[in-house]
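All the exercises in this workshop are built on plain-text protein records. A record pairs a protein's sequence with a compact description of its fold. Read left to right, the backbone structure tokens trace the chain's path through space. Once this layout is familiar, the rest of the handout is easier to follow. Here is such a record, shown just as it appears in the course material:
>
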Amino acid sequence: MLRAQVAAARELGPLHAVKLGVVPDVLRLKALREALRDVEAWWVVDPVVRSSRGEPLSRLSARHYLALAGPRVVLTPNLGEAAWLLGLPEVRTVEEATEAGQRLVSLGFGAVFVKGGHRPQGAVDVLCLPGQTRLLKGARVARLPGLRGTGCRLASAFAAELGKGRSVAAAARRAKAFVTRYIQTGR
């Protein structure tokens, strides 16, 4: 089914960006890699392994996600996922998020966007690129009840912006603004 979805998308024209969210197992990951092998698109990889309630969603290991590294791959972990990918007990502060993001970039990712929206002191996300780091600061906003999937939305918006030809930094800013608006309005 994954191969058929990629084939159908490719019939519409060249792919400029692909977003990977929950990949439940190695078989599906291999199918995706095979189907996208000759595609020159950006990959935005959201390494989701657990739901926001803590339920497991994937059987992939950190090693599987790290093997996706490449110059056109943007990794979008939240604080817990960044820690998990690097085998750290936790990532809490902006400094720790910056260090984790740069370590992941050093493994070959084109960019790493560490989502920090769950910090009580404010929503500071960290965008790491080779040789540079940018902080994307935002005020903590009141969240509408029942909203889920903000990390998924951010990765999807990031991919959409890259697909429009925006730079990684511009795509990050626009994706953050999109998700902030969603948290405030539900739309």
In short: The chain has a mean pLDDT of 90. The radius of gyration is 16 Å. The helical segments are 2-11, 26-35, 62-66, 79-86, 94-106, 150-163, 168-185. Residues 100 and 112 are 9 Å apart (CA to CA).
